[in-house]
Amino acid sequence: MDFLNKLKITIFITILIVICSETVSSQQWGNMESNNFFELQQQFEEYWKDKTIEKGKGWKQFKRWEWYWKNRVDAKGDLPPSGMVQAEMEAYQRNHRGSKRSIQANWQSEGPDYTTGGYAGIGRMASVAFHPSNTNIIYAGAAGGGLWVSTNGGNYWQVTTDNLASMGVSSIAIHPTNPNILYIATGDGDAGDNYSVGVLKSTNGGLTFSTTGLNWATSNGRLIRRVLMDPDNPDILVAATSNGIYRTTNAGTNWTQVQTGNFYDLEFKPSLAANIWYAAAGSAVWKSSDDGVTWASMQTISGSNRISIVGCVQIYDFCNFWFFYINGHNA
């Protein structure tokens, strides 16, 4: 390499060093050897306190960095070490090996799983209920096959409703202290393949049923989706139907329509003397704070055509979080 080329390279490197040095000295707040958010923030403020904010000087870039990290540092302002997220994830996986997430559920069919009629199948099961004191007694309601009862934990099933005017059972409610008393909501509340004749009542454990005050003809084209019993007063029942919400205070003898509308689901708030109830309609969630006597819409969900109340998270005896299944194009 000749002398002239060497001189040119030397001059270029010298100029580059000078430019870099000036840049570093003009933005000292960005070159602190610190991993502390508050120290970096203070250095930045000291640098800019008597200066005019100019474009291209790094002010905006620092403010973006500051906004991102201000809620991600600890109480002392220390920034998290690199690789922390990966390390925490690996620690979680080590500590949760063999947890419920990695254990296969042990499910087995309890029937009913066969019938000699129709297509030699059982169709859709719409509801299930359990005897309050005898775990071997189980009730299952079919969308078009009536009420089935097992008295030996599901090994054998018997249908008890072949002679009813409606073969659908969409919901079952059992008296908590006198399980011989139970109620069924008739009709196919899910798909409407058969219509309801109202709420029926049994006083002999589901062997036979009689009509209650909520008594319809199938020609009315109505459906009952859910019937629930007040846990503090078994004589009070509430039913969610395609023709509104109905309530009885005398064990089904008389029913009153307390709210109009097309309702799909119903739940009461646990551990609060059952004073608060929730009902789901096509695009709204309703609430009653007086044991189902009066109702008010509490939430509208635009674009939905059916809402089901999936469950409630109960924390310290309060039902704080409700989960809803929404079926709709835009929900």
List the helices and strands and how they pair.
Layout (H helix, E strand, L loop, with lengths): L2 H24 L10 H12 L10 H11 L14 H12 L29 E6 L7 E5 L3 E5 L7 E2 L9 E6 L7 E5 L11 E5 L7 E6 L8 E6 L7 E5 L2 E5 L7 E4 L3 E6 L8 E5 L2 E5 L7 E5 L3 E12 L2 E11 L3
Antiparallel strand pairs: 1-2, 2-3, 3-4, 5-6, 6-7, 7-8, 9-10, 10-11, 11-12, 13-14, 14-15, 15-16, 17-18
Question: Could you walk me through the main structural features you see in this protein, from its secondary elements to its overall organization?
Answer:
There is one protein chain. The chain is α+β, with helices and mostly antiparallel strands and 331 residues long. It folds into 2 domains: 3-91, no CATH class; 125-328, Methylamine Dehydrogenase, Chain H, CATH 2.130.10. The protein has helices at residues 3-26, 37-48, 59-69, 84-95, and strands spanning 125-130, 138-142, 146-150, 158-159, 169-174, 182-186, 198-202, 210-215, 224-229, 237-241, 244-248, 256-259, 263-268, 277-281, 284-288, 296-300, 304-315, 318-328. The strands form 5 sheets. A 4-stranded antiparallel β-sheet has the order 1-2-3-4, with no helix packed on it. A hairpin with a 7-residue loop joins strand 3 and strand 4. It is elongated and about 90 Å long.
